[in-house]
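Quick look at the format.
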Amino acid sequence: MMKLIKRIKVSLKRLFSIKDTPSNLAGGAAVGLFFAIMPGEGVFTSLIIATLFKLNRMTTLISVGATNTWSTLALAPLAAIIGARIFHLDAAGIINDFQAVYASRQWLDISRLLIFELAWPLLVGFLAVSAACSLMCYLVVYTLANKRNN
């Protein structure tokens, strides 16, 4: 726990030593966090998006670096629940359906189940969780950067 707190302090110190506008700092941090939470490659995608939208790439890298694979794994149950609710599915039912189809060895049903009943709800859930976390990150970094400038 102390290691995590130290990591956060170091990241915040680096973040606020960068000279840029509060909106660029906050935007870069939010983009980095969004893609860090989403499953897949976060670093390169974050840098491409930050470059396209002319956001601060250093805050993007700091934000991606402050999180890791464990944050994605920790948020996976929340993403599954949110995705299941959006698609009007039962999160526990999804797992039970998968186990039943997998045990039957009917590969066409497995691929259909994976794509339509597991992948889409999970992807939509991760999008919702990533967006919410990124919005909170943007608001916090923007507020702190504004206070630093005043």
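Next, a different chain entirely:
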Amino acid sequence: MSCDNRPGGESRPAAPRDGSSCDCQRRREFRLSVEGQEMLVTYEPYWSDGEFPVGHFEFRSPYEPPRRIPVSETGYRSHFGAMADIEAYESAETYARLLVEATLDRAPKSKSRSSDNDQLKLF
């Protein structure tokens, strides 16, 4: 059994190994706001199957032309996550929010421009 939920009718794996229905295969879109910045998120569960199935997230700027979003200077970021990890959370939205927050926590912190250590003294 497979679902035709990809553009162009490309077939993807059917359901999780536990035999649940194909409803979980549908591509979903939702909005996510982090640090006051909105992102459009597309999520496709079971993007690939096999021994370790993965889901696919796309984070996009809601603007045209795309603007910076919290996880990307270009306005687009793709992420593949293990379905076991994604399903450990209450929803794909929760997983996406925590992923963005974790990415921000790992980002290097910029120095304050007013710090005395940023510029050498001339005299």
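Residues 2-106 form one domain.

See the schema section for token definitions.
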